[in-house]
From TrEMBL:
CDD domains: TerD_like. Pfam families: TerD. This is Tellurium resistance. Residues 3-166 form the TerD domain. InterPro entries: Stress/Tellurium_Resist, Tellurite_resistance_TerA, TerD.
Length: 426
């Protein structure tokens, strides 16, 4: 589609894919959406992006990134039938992280029918320069039907500038107050003072109005070239840290064909289990997992709790566990990993994103690489307490268990945990 043109779209669920070609020196990009009334959001809740991945109506959801053969896509799922009647426009935007869009090759936005996979509309953005954010397209209502328009409007002020332009309140770093000017020396009052006057009546102060906290745009994305981050430097060493694993499955597999070396499709539900090996400062070790109902505890050792067992992989739920960083001195190291419990014999064609959200400090996220081996267990992240620092290390390491060896024992051996394992069931 040329810039400024429009096309009708179905009101069924649509998959909006922001795509570009990865490579050395290419910055990351993020997809986002804003739901507008008269050109502005009604509240900060009408902004859907990596730190706020789902609209309250369920009409828009940020699904995350995947990298297939050097082509990266960041996906939004939009169900126009669920958009509230007051909403007139759904803006589809992109922001660059660590560079400008002049450094991002082959940037485009594709709108697909989510059920059929057919392309409904596509707009290729060309000629970008110093822009760090773009409105690539928009869905808008016209005579009771929805249309898509190719926009291509750039911003040099990044996601913050784009968001504030549409009425979003953005959390900005606090600045120190300016120094007070020097005060003059006190003046000696005269010996005779007038009689004190009664102070004027002070009207009662109304109670403060509670406002929603502003949107926080900061984040840390871990990559192969920048795989670790200090929670200490980020100010995220206290409170609860939530770890989320969400995934998308294009197909589901039963295993690897011995002659073809390719995965074989199957129809069972895929059940992934988020787990954590831990070692505490006193030398005690263990595992937190749904297998054997070893859900852990948040306010007593091991200070890790698994929320539950999910089969959908949705961003709003997925697999979650929480780490109590108020007890970080008691923690020596934690290895977060995921196993396939049933429904597949490999992570092939699984597109997963891991997000660690400290109560304080910026969220940390990363995507898993494409799986090319018959792996049933993947080490996700290693959290290490060095005594002076708390470090999160991206692992994204697929492991292949030997015959008769469990996924848990496999990841134990790979990281030298040295535990004894017995069979368990959910």
């Amino acid at each position: 589609m040329p810039k400024g043109s429009n096309a009708p779209v179905p009101t069924t669920a649509l998959r909006v894919e922001l795509g570009w070609r990865s490579g050395t020196g290419v910055p990351d990009a993020d997809a986002s959406a804003l739901l507008l009334v008269s050109g502005k959001v009604r509240s900060d809740g009408d902004f859907v992006f990596y730190n706020q991945p789902e609209h309250s109506s369920g009409a828009v959801r940020h699904e995350g990134k995947r990298d297939a053969g050097g082509r990266v896509t960041d996906t939004l799922l939009v169900d126009l039938a669920r958009v509230e009647p007051a909403i007139e426009t759904v803006i589809l935007a992109a922001s660059a992280d660590g560079g400008t869009f002049g450094q991002v090759p082959d940037l485009c936005i594709e709108v697909k029918d989510a059920a059929q996979g057919t392309v409904v509309a596509r707009f290729d953005s060309m000629g970008a320069g110093v822009e760090t954010a773009f409105v690539l397209g928009e869905f808008y209502r016209r005579q009771g039907a929805w249309k898509f328009r190719a926009v291509g409007q750039g911003y040099s002020s990044g996601l913050e500038g784009l968001a504030t332009d549409y009425g979003i309140t953005v959390d900005e770093p606090q600045q120190a107050a300016p120094a007070a000017p020097p005060t003059a020396p006190p003046v000696t009052p005269p010996a005779t003072m007038p009689p004190p006057m009664a102070p004027p009546a002070v009207p009662p102060v109304p109670p403060p109005v509670t406002q929603a906290p502003p949107v926080r745009l900061s984040k840390v994305t871990l990559t192969k070239t920048a795989p670790s981050v200090s929670l200490t430097k980020q100010g995220g060493t206290s409170g609860a840290m939530r770890v989320n694993l969400n995934w998308q499955v294009r197909k589901q597999f039963s295993g690897w064909a011995s002659k073809l070396g390719r995965p074989v499709a199957m129809h069972n539900d895929l059940d992934l289990d988020l787990c954590a090996l831990y070692e505490l400062a006193d030398g005690s070790k263990g595992v937190v997992q749904s297998l054997g109902n070893a859900y852990g505890a948040l306010r007593q050792p091991p200070y890790i709790h698994l929320d539950g067992d999910d089969r959908t992989g949705a961003v709003s739920s997925g697999e979650n566990l929480t780490i109590n960083l108020d007890h970080q001195r008691a923690i020596r190291r934690i290895l977060i990993f995921v196993t396939i419990y049933e429904g597949a014999r490999s992570f092939a064609d699984l597109h997963a994103t891991v997000t660690l959200t400290p109560q304080f400090g910026a969220p940390i996220d990363f995507s898993l690489d494409e799986c090319t081996v018959p792996s049933t267990v993947c080490a996700l992240a290693l959290i290490t307490n060095t005594g002076s620092d708390l470090v999160v290390q991206r692992e994204a390491r697929y492991l292949v268990p030997e015959r008769g060896v469990s996924p848990q024992r496999t990841v134990d051996h790979a990281y030298g945990w040295g535990m004894n394992w017995t069979p368990g069931r959910k």
